[in-house]
Amino acid sequence: MLTKYGHFITFLISMVPIVELRGAIPFGVMKCEVPWQQAVIISMIGNMLPVPFIFFFARKILEWGKDKPVIGKFFSWCLEKGHHGGEKLKAKAGDKGMFWALLLFVGIPLPGTGAWTGTLAASMLDLDFKKSVIAVICGVLLAAAIITLLTVMGFNMFITK
User: Fold this and answer.
1) Domain range spanning residue 107?
2) Distances (CA, A) of 84 to 63, 89, 119
3) What is the pLDDT of residues 20-58, one digit of tens each?
């Protein structure tokens, strides 16, 4: 069943926040039997698809909902966390280093990093859209390379045993 819809499942997983292509590539390759080259391309496309929407709308939605009952506390917390984290990153990287800081933030596959959070941080800091998207694309390429290498190496280690 998974192999029949493997490409589509891999694509959908790559669009999910937190999981993104970090989970989609290994899942696609190991569970859905998608060839790693296809899993990488599909995952990168799926991971990048939400980026413009996050950049232009996520902050507006969070600001809209910060004073609403039930969701207000969470939305305020997201805004505060995003603003604080963005300012901290900006203080360390400076204006000229923001491109590289954003690229590495998205590209190094650690919990809480990725295209979703990187794009939200860029939006919160009012960074240039074009430069931010290029940094996120490069970061997604880096993350895809790291995850693919780990997936293929790990997959081959289990097959040879």
Assistant:
1) 49-160
2) 15, 9, 15
3) 999 999 999 999 999 999 999 999 999 999 999 999 999
